[in-house]
Design a protein that fits this description.
mainly alpha
């Protein structure tokens, strides 16, 4: 695992010379671009003439990826509380990779299926939409927080990393858990 964490020395040294200001601007622009792309994909892009039967299993896959991400986050918290920085780093990188896989499968699904309509009525409807709206809202905040927290760890600015992680962790965990809940409410 140390090879992964200490892989390409030249790349690490090059990135270490990047200022925080440049990194934060990049993170902000990347987060904004991701948001604009997803709004375009789900709400603006021409909807398929009919919903594709292709990739109908992806919502379940996405739910599982969210559950795995939430588990990795909890393990990461457990390990850092125990003082095991290596296992903490592995857990957090795993959560990031799994969340990235989620994003890829989410984009694939919505590019061929369009948006998902919630047709249930009754008390479940406001619960679903509250969960969905809070999930989406925190995702907008969460992405730049997550990327910044990772950047600070990479730069070994652990004091600031720890302070920001106190906010990033519950936001990211909420996003992951509500991703599972949204899927379950749609069943």
């Amino acid at each position: 695992m140390k090879k992964i964490l200490n892989s390409d020395y030249t790349t690490q040294m090059t990135l270490k010379t990047v200022s925080n200001k440049k990194a934060f601007v990049f993170i902000g622009l990347l987060s904004l671009a991701a948001f604009i792309f997803l709004v375009w994909l789900i709400y603006i892009k021409e909807k398929p003439a009919q919903y594709s039967e292709q990739f109908t299993y992806l919502p379940l896959v996405n739910s599982c990826l969210n559950a795995i991400s939430a588990s990795c986050l909890c393990f990461g918290l457990f390990f850092i509380k125990k003082g095991d920085k290596t296992k903490h780093a592995v857990s957090m990188i795993s959560a990031f990779v799994v969340s990235s896989l989620f994003l890829i499968t989410y984009i694939v699904y919505h590019s061929v299926h369009g948006d998902t309509h919630f047709l249930k009525q009754g008390l479940i409807r406001p619960i679903y939409f509250f969960t969905l709206i809070s999930h989406i809202s925190l995702t907008l905040v969460g992405l730049p927080f997550i990327l910044t927290t990772f950047w600070l760890a990479f730069k070994q600015n652990f004091n600031t990393h720890k302070k920001l992680a106190r906010y990033t962790f519950p936001i990211w965990l909420y996003i992951s858990v509500t991703g599972v809940l949204i899927y379950l409410l749609q069943l």
